[in-house]
Amino acid sequence: MHTEVPKRLVILLWMAAVSGFLYYFSASMGAPMTFQNFINFTVLLWGGGLAYHVTSELIACPYSETTKPLWKSLLLPLSKVYVGYVIAAVSLYLAKKFGGNWGWLLALIGLLAGYFWVMHYILSLEKPIRQIIVASKQL
Question: Do 97 and 103 form a contact (C-beta atoms < 8 A)?
Fold first, then answer.
């Protein structure tokens, strides 16, 4: 009998990291309906949607002794995805700190850069996830 600790650990680490990102954005939205709050909501919606997509892909991947090293190898690509979330969160923090038009421009540039980063590395997760699925079918 094998244990699925690496699989569960990878998924739990991913969920905890993304929850922190989503919490930061949701906490920043306690204001009236404005275009800026719409952008915040959009970031939260799509950031959460992308995080859910990755989580559902990971949950669908089987675990075995054969796939154990592949599960461990997912930590680096997931960390790269998470950097995009950090870029978006830091840009929002700095935008609030600077305020005004420059802050708004900084937020927009940072959010776009962060999400392009996230999308690029989410697409690169396809290969390791397929490797896990193929390796488990060969058992």
Answer: yes
The residue extents of the domains of the chain are 5-81+119-137
Tens digits of per-residue pLDDT, 66-98?
Answer: 888 888 888 899 999 999 989 988 888 888 888
Question: Which of 11, 48, 8 is CA-nearest to residue 26?
Answer: 48
Query: What's CA 69's distance to the chain center, in Å?
Result: 22
**Structural contact between residues 63 and 6, judged by C-beta atoms closer than 8 angstroms:** yes
Q: What is the pLDDT of residues 45-74, one digit of tens each?
A: 778 888 888 888 888 888 888 888 888 888
Q: Are 47 and 103 in contact (CB under 8 A)?
A: no
Cα–Cα distance measured from residue 120 to residue 82, given in angstroms and rounded to the nearest whole number:
11
HSE, side-chain direction, 13 A CA sphere, residue 12: 6
